[in-house]
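Section 5.1 Outputs to date
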Amino acid sequence: MSTPHLKARVAILISGRGSNMEAIAKAARGTDFPAKVALVLSNRPDAEGLKRAEKLGIKTAVLDHTQFTTREAFDGALHQVLLQEEIDFICLAGFMRLLTPGFVASWEGRIMNIHPSLLPSYKGLNAIEQAIEAGAKITGCTVHAVTADMDSGPIIGQCAVPVLAGDTPETLAKRIQAAEHRLYPQALWLVLSGQHLPAEEDEQLISF
């Protein structure tokens, strides 16, 4: 981790639009924010978020997963890029790749993800659709530490979002995304200010 007088160098990994990336990057412009977005990396060359990052003056990189024969090979190349860029911390923001246990172990305590549900409910893909189909009255978003088990790491922060009558996946997703844009920068600030991720037995929670 960076020394106290320096901002931590953060890499944000994306696969799509990069709206959470943009929210973090804008928050990181603040002089008292403990992080600098040093790199935005995508596994998809056509990811819209790459253009967003470039407009914000952030260095970008592409590591096309289709050019690798195994997950281990991709993650090995990703690890090397992050080391070359002297990255301290990783934020996954719509990164549609399952990271290997070896990669996660290499970055233990220095990697977080955001998920569009109140974990542990509705893990995995289509979390918003899962909430609607289950008849949930409240869902939301969760920032959590990344572990080898998908969507199962210690919870850092959550934000509740009501499910309204007549909600579609699209209308609910829009409100959850707005909550994510508030929560993710706050959660990153919390973790980097404390210089650690919460332990399994001592989870911290941000709620809105």
